[in-house]
Amino acid sequence: MLHAIIDIGSNTIRMAVYQIEGRAFTLLLKRKHTVGLAGYLAQGRLVREGIEKTVKILRGFMEFIETFGITRVHAFATAALRSATNSRAATEEIMRRTGVSIRIISGEEEAAYDFIGATASIAHADGIMADIGGGSTEIISYAAHEMQGRWSLPIGSLAMTKAHVADLLPTHEECERIRAAVVDILAGVPDLRGLRARHMIGMGGVLSSASRMHTLLYPEAQNRLIDARHLPSMIDLFSAGQPLSEHDTAVLLRAAPDRLHNIVPGMVIAHTLAETFAAEDILYSDSGVREGYIWKEIIGVEQ
After folding, report:
1. Which of 20, 73, 150, 205 lies 20 to 30 angstroms, CA to CA, from 214?
2. Are 143 and 292 in contact (CB under 8 A)?
3. Distance (Å, rounded) from C-alpha 154 to C-alpha 232?
4. 194 by DSSP, 3-state: which?
5. Is 60 helix (H, G, I), strand (E, B) or coil?
6. In sequence order, what are the beta bridge partners of 25?
7. What is the distance of C-alpha 68 from the center of its chain?
C-alpha cells in the first residue's frame, strides 16, 4: 500500500512516498522545500508569510498525491508549529485551506520516533542520539540498545541563527554567543548535562550537511562519521572574518547548498553537545522521525 508522509519541520517541509507491506517499507520518492519556518516566528507567533508558504507547499503536495490516487496521507509538524503561540489557529487555517490533517507531535514523541527510526543504524549498544533541527534539538540516551531518557531542547540551528547571527555566515564572536546560549540551556537540565558517551548518533539536515563537509575536508574519514575533534576547525574555517579559498567555497556549496545560513550554528551546537557528553565521534543516520513514525504509527511497533 502506498503512504504519503508529510513532515513540516522548522527548516524544511518534506513529502516522502513509501510502499508499505506488512513489516517492510520502501521509500519511493522524496520531495523537499527549504522554508525555514522557525525564521517566521515573530514574538512567538507564526506570521502570515510563514502560513502562506506552508499552504502553497502543501497544496502542491496534495496535487501530486491526488494525481496518483494515494489515499493514505499522514502529516505531522514539529518545533516551529509546536512552539508558536498561535499554533492552534495557524494549524487549523492550514488544514482548512489545504485539506491536510496535521498532527503536531510533542518533543518527546519526536525523540521517540527518532530513536525507533534510527535503531537499525545504531552500531554501538550504548550512546546518545541527537536530532538537531531548525527549532529544537531532540536528545536520547540509550544503553544495551534500549532508550533510557529523552529530552527536547530549544536549541535549533535556525533559532540560534535568528537570535545571534547578523549575516550569512556567523563571526567568531557570534559562534561564541551561540555556544554560550547552548551551554546555558544545558545547565538547566542537570540530568542531561551529566550524561557521558563515547559515541553519538546524529540526525537532521544540519548533521547530514556536516557529515558531507567532513568527508570532503577529511577524505580518509569513514563515510558519515564526524570526528568530534575536527568540528572546531570546520567551524573556524567557515566563520566570517577571513576570505574563503575557492576550494573551501566549493566544499561549503557542495556540502550545504540549502543550509548556508545555518550550517555553522548547527555545527556549533553539535560540537557543544559532543564536548558536554565527552563524545569522540558523531555518526550521521539518515533514518529518523519519518521512519520511526512508520514503525510506530503505521506498522505498530512499540519502543
Report:
1. 150
2. no
3. 22
4. coil
5. helix
6. 20
7. 29
